[in-house]
DNA sequence: GGTGTGACCAGCT
DNA sequence: AAGCTGGCCACAC
């Protein structure tokens, strides 16, 4: 039988959006953390791809709060302005230097822990 | 409809 | 020690 559309048809993409939207102010997480929370660390690449499509999402996604494992602003170039991502994070209290969050370990927000695994 | 790529991560050589 | 490959799912051509 065909799958029932419009109900519970959440895919990896949709799940990523939900998690990212739940990131509190002044916090940041990593692609792998989200992927791991969803149950697949191998899907970390999809998380990044989901961010790329975040502009296509019906709701605004704070993709600037999602960085790589090193706390580096890898996808800053996808915000329309390469400095926008850093500006937003600094505006939330993050310490960024050389495109890398120095206090990433302090503002790191683990979905599996905060949302309740 | 198949192939390639993509804002990653971690393990192996 | 560092460099490369594999793996995952979704989207574009």
Descriptive keywords:
single chain, 117 residues, mainly alpha, Arc Repressor Mutant, subunit A, two-stranded parallel sheet, two-stranded antiparallel sheet, DNA-binding
Written description of the protein model:
This protein has 117 residues and is mainly alpha-helical. It has one domain (9-114): Orthogonal Bundle (Arc Repressor Mutant, subunit A), CATH 1.10.10. The protein is 37% helix and 7% strand. The chain contains 6 helices and 4 strands, in the order αβααβαββαα. The protein has helices at 12-21, 31-38, 44-52, 84-91, 104-107, 111-114; strands at 29-30, 66-67, 96-97, 100-101. The chain has a two-stranded parallel sheet with strand order 1-2. A hairpin with a 2-residue loop joins strand 3 and strand 4. Helix 1 (12-21) packs across helix 3 (44-52) and helix 2 (31-38) packs across helix 3. It is globular. It binds a DNA duplex (13 and 13 nucleotides) through residues 11-13, 30-32, 35-36, 40-53, 63, 66-69, 73-78.
Question: How does the SSE layout of this entry go?
Answer:
Blueprint: H1 12-21, E1 29-30, H2 31-38, H3 44-52, E2 66-67, H4 84-91, E3 96-97, E4 100-101, H5 104-107, H6 111-114
Parallel strand pairs: 1-2
Antiparallel strand pairs: 3-4
Helix pairs in contact: 1-3, 2-3
The structure holds a DNA duplex (13 and 13 nucleotides).
How would you summarize this macromolecular structure in one to three sentences?
The chain is mainly α and 117 residues long. The protein has helices at residues 12-21, 31-38, 44-52, 84-91, 104-107, 111-114, and strands spanning 29-30, 66-67, 96-97, 100-101.
């Amino acid at each position: 039988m065909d799958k029932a559309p419009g109900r519970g048809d959440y895919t990896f993409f949709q799940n990523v959006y939900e998690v990212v939207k739940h990131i509190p102010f002044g916090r940041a997480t990593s692609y792998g953390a989200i992927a791991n929370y969803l149950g697949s660390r191998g899907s970390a690449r999809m998380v990044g791809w989901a961010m790329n499509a975040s502009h296509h999402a019906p709701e605004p996604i704070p993709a600037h709060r999602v960085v790589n494992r090193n706390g580096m602003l890898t996808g800053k170039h996808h915000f329309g302005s390469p400095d926008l991502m850093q500006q937003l994070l600094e505006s939330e209290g993050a310490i960024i230097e050389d495109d890398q969050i120095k206090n990433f370990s302090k503002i790191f927000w683990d979905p599996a822990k905060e949302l309740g695994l």
